[in-house]
Write a structure and sequence with these properties.
The chain is α+β, with helices and mostly antiparallel strands. It contains 14 helices and 17 strands. Strand 16 and strand 17 form a beta hairpin. Helix 1 packs across helix 2, helix 8 runs antiparallel to helix 9 and helix 10 runs antiparallel to helix 11. The chain is globular and about 75 Å long. The chain starts with 17 loop residues before the first helix and ends with a helix. The mean pLDDT is about 95.
Length: about 450
Amino acid sequence: MRSGWADSEQRGLAADDVAAWAAARRGRLHARFAGERLVVPSGGYQRRSNDQSYRFRPHSAYTWLTGDQSSDGVLVIEPDGDATLFLRPRSDRRSGEFFRDRVYGELWAGRRPTLAESRARLALPTRHVAELASAGAGTPTRVLRRVDPRVDALLADVAGPGDAELDAVLAELRLVKDAWEIAQIEQAVAITTRGFEDVVRALPTARRTSERCLEGVFWQRARLEGNDVGYHSIVAAGAHAATLHWIDNDGPVRDGDLLLFDAGAETRSLYTADVTRVLPISGRFTPLQRDLYELCRRANDAALSCLTPGIEFRAFHRAAMIVLAHGLADLGVLPCSPEQALAKDSGLYRRWTLCGSGHMLGLDVHDCAAAPSGAYLEGRLEAGNVLTVEPGLYFQADDELIPAELRGLGMRIEEDVVITDDGYRVLSDGLPRRADDVESWMHRVAS
């Protein structure tokens, strides 16, 4: 088992397209912590059951800084800005790891890159992760914690309050996407658009089975053209649409009901889309369904019209809520005037709008969540921000404060948007927005 193997080292590899972008990102991070060592791990495998692990996905900050997606990697940026990537390389056949190690052995788990291959593709110096323990002791160090417990334990003696700041700064730096990242998100949205078309074509089968059918159909597209889905798809038919994060996806799909479909494909570079459309399962909205859909569309339009560099992040949410509050009043839902419901000391409309109207998007579906509030939720939009715009209405099936015909209805239109120098660009405009256009699109796709 240890001899008689051909030389299969891959030589002459060119650097990946992302390598130069990742180097620039490392430079931005170093500038915030010059004179300190920074340690960012990718993480390791997570056990699912017995000897089975979940498919590995690296920590987003690690991939953003390196372009690498392998498990057990650790990026170290030195006080002078030089960086080294410590990796778990291809298993050694001479030691027997190749056939004995069920986690890393090539016979069991497949081929990992060698250190030289990774060095060429990532344009980074590489060392074996086993050498991390001896790498530059005695230097002020910050570690991205709670990613890899082995790294946390190895560097326990340098743990301090500065580690939390590293986490926050990494998220803050990722708020503004570079051109390479925006192109990846555009690709994710394009795959997602084709996945939504697949879902429309699969509606007849779903009516005979369940929401599971549509979940599987979309996943097939995401897996075929990308890496996976970026998050658990929300396949919410009928009253399930009023549950914000419905992921059981096991309910019936019936004519006359609506389907709220919220899904995003993740590219092989790990960037995700996040798009929602509400589809009439029969192909036609009822008059009430159409009215509610168009109300949410008008709220979405109002939110979009606000987007420009320099505005407060929360401004687009407020614009959408004004439209929805007046719409709720027109429906006879509000027990007071829209102005009273919108007052800061009231917020009564929130019973039916429930949550914010959008979030940042990128390597994570709720991207940059650890960023300081002043740079994100309480901050202002900048060119290069990529975010979702998704105001919605959610009427619970047992809500006795609303007319019976509204109960069990959920509405959300979600767009993926990039902020430009002079406004915004909708990335998800390959899918229809207006009710009439949704019906025409469904008919054309299904034909």
